[in-house]
Specification:
This protein has eleven helices and ten strands. By secondary structure, it is an alpha+beta fold. It binds adenosine-5'-diphosphate (ADP) and magnesium ion. The site of magnesium ion has 3 residues, from loops.
């Protein structure tokens, strides 16, 4: 393929044809790739440059692989395999062809309540599995790490082949009903930790979604993911995050004081149920904040029966 010829080649990846770069990070690049042996189909390969990493960062990479390897849930991106060369580390991941939630929010400014419910429900199911079954805190829940796995990619493939240009149409959630978005998957366990009863104390994660207790240097636990879920739900509904300032000191103060608002005009049209769930998640005191079970049991989660109706 023409596209493949523009791609870098990595030692030990001979079996794979790299098709396009789909993600970029500090130490890693993520590619869509196809199996030349036609056994595994298309996958996402997360390539990490080990040679740029300090020992501590390599340890984190090791943790990411070990945690992801143990996870087995439909709303969590699955690790198919991992391997490495002297300089690079490779994670072979289940490909999510629908891309990031982040791009959908940017593209459509905000999501309908029904759509936001569909997404948060599935992310919350992933989080319940992590917290209650696996004793894992994700610590980096945000729209960039939430990926779409459309129910059917067949119509997209067909329409692509009839298009003249080589512009690729991303699957857009505005073109489909909530029940057609398909599966939503949580990715990127690069900051996650196994807690197993022992609260972790390392401050890390993305500032904008960081819980207040992270700045108070308290030991923290699964509650940080619940705060991030509140930020996520707010952002999907409003199209902008609850706490944001270019000045990080100001943003930290906003977060620590729980200073956000359901501002007009955007929030005027959003239901009281949605606002209630957001405020239960964005509760400063982690002891009072919604747990994952309380979040899943919240009436707003169950208000609209349409997106839980079986499609067959
Ligand atoms: P980082 O630790 O650099 O943030 P991620 O694991 O979050 O790495 O991957 C970076 C980006 O690559 C994601 O935000 C997403 O756009 C893309 N990506 C990662 N894994 C997949 C996947 N399995 N399917 C599709 N895209 C992916
Ligand atoms: Mg990421």
């Amino acid at each position: 393929s023409q596209r493949a010829s523009n791609m870098p080649s990595y030692p030990g990846l001979d079996r794979w044809r790299l098709l396009e770069k789909i993600g970029d990070g500090a130490f890693s690049c993520v590619y869509r790739a196809s199996d030349t042996k036609s056994e595994l189909g298309e996958v996402a390969i997360k390539v990490t440059k080990k040679y740029e990493m300090k020992e501590e960062q390599k340890k984190k990479l090791h943790d990411e692989v070990e945690i992801t390897r143990k996870l087995d849930h439909d709303n969590v991106v699955r690790l198919i395999d991992a391997s490495e060369s002297v300089q690079y580390h490779y994670m072979f991941l289940e490909l999510c062809p629908g891309g990031e939630l982040y791009d959908q929010i940017v593209k459509f400014a905000s999501l309908s309540e029904q759509m936001a419910r569909h997404v948060i429900w599935q992310v919350a199911n992933a989080v319940q599995y992590l917290h209650e079954t696996m004793g894992v805190v994700h610590r980096d829940i945000k729209p960039e790490n939430i990926l779409f796995y459309p129910n059917s990619t067949t119509p997209r493939e067909e329409s692509k082949s009839t298009q003249s240009g080589d512009e690729e149409e991303a699957v857009s959630i505005a073109d489909v009903g909530a029940s057609d978005i398909g599966v939503v998957k949580l990715a990127d366990f690069g900051l996650s930790k196994v807690i197993a009863g022992v609260p972790a104390a390392t401050p890390c994660g993305t500032m904008s979604y960081a819980a207040p207790e992270l700045f108070r240097k308290h030991r923290y636990t699964t509650s940080v993911d619940m705060w991030a879920l509140g930020c996520l739900l707010f952002t999907m509904l409003a199209g902008f995050p609850p706490f944001y300032d270019e000045d990080l000191d100001i943003m930290r103060r906003q977060i620590m004081q729980g200073e956000y608002s359901f501002s007009a005009p955007k929030w005027d049209t959003i239901s009281d149920g949605a606002k209630d769930l957001v405020s239960r998640l964005l509760t400063i005191n982690p002891e009072e904040r919604s747990t994952i079970q309380e979040c899943l049991d919240h009436p707003w989660m169950h208000e609209d029966s349409e997106d839980k109706t079986p499609t067959n």
